[in-house]
Amino acid sequence: MELESLRELASEATKEDKYQVYDVILAGVK
């Protein structure tokens, strides 16, 4: 069960990181 919680937290953190990466990429493209 702990793994599930950690997995959810990791997925949430990954989403945040992805958005930041996208912002950086878009900024670089412009």
TrEMBL record:
Protein name listed in UniProt: Uncharacterized protein
